[in-house]
Amino acid sequence: MKMCVDCQKEVAGKKAVKVREDKTIRVLRKIKRLFRVAKGNELYVCEDCMKEHLEKRKSFEKTMLIFSVIAALIIVLLLVTIIFSGRFEIWTVLSAIFIGIFLFLFSMIFKYVPGVESVIPVPVTKKPEAKRKKKRGGK
């Protein structure tokens, strides 16, 4: 089915923009297939939700930038304190990096808004149903 990611309604027969299939969506699809809950929907943003979606995406990109900077600052701060303390331990360095990555992924999981392929909505057509082949009777 062709679904809008914002309003969760079917977009077949309406104007919509296709969602870009990025790494995050591919990973989510793999996880859903692994747990056998995948629906196989094609993701779109309908014309009605487009303005709101673009604002959410802009906010997401800004949040990602802020969280990336905060994570980098935490990593640098922890690494600098390790150097000034004079005690270098690999576990402390790894934990600093782990904390930075965790902050970045935390922001990604809870604020993720997928990008779109274009900003101009186009009509979405319904997928034609596959015709079933008739079985021929054997002797």
Structural notes for this entry:
With 139 residues, the protein is an alpha+beta fold. It has one domain (2-123). 50% of the residues lie in helices and 10% in strands. Strands 1-3-2-4 form a 4-stranded mixed sheet, with no helix packed on it. Helix 2 (50-85) runs antiparallel to helix 3. It is elongated, with a radius of gyration of 23 Å. The mean pLDDT is 83.
The strands making up the biggest β-sheet line up spatially as 1-3-2-4
Please state the structural category. alpha+beta
Compute the separation of the termini in Å. 40 Å
Contiguous runs where pLDDT drops below 50 for at least 5 residues? none
Radius of gyration: 23 Å
Number of strand segments: 4
Strand-residue proportion: 5-15%
Question: Can you give me a brief rundown of this structure?
Answer:
This protein has 139 residues and is α+β, with helices and mostly antiparallel strands. 50% of the residues lie in helices and 10% in strands.
Please supply descriptive tags for the structure shown above.
4 strands; single chain; 4-stranded mixed β-sheet; alpha+beta; 3 helices; 139 residues
Write the layout of secondary structure elements.
Elements: E1 2-4, E2 15-18, H1 23-34, E3 42-46, H2 50-85, H3 90-111, E4 122-123
Parallel strand pairs: 1-3
Antiparallel strand pairs: 2-3, 2-4
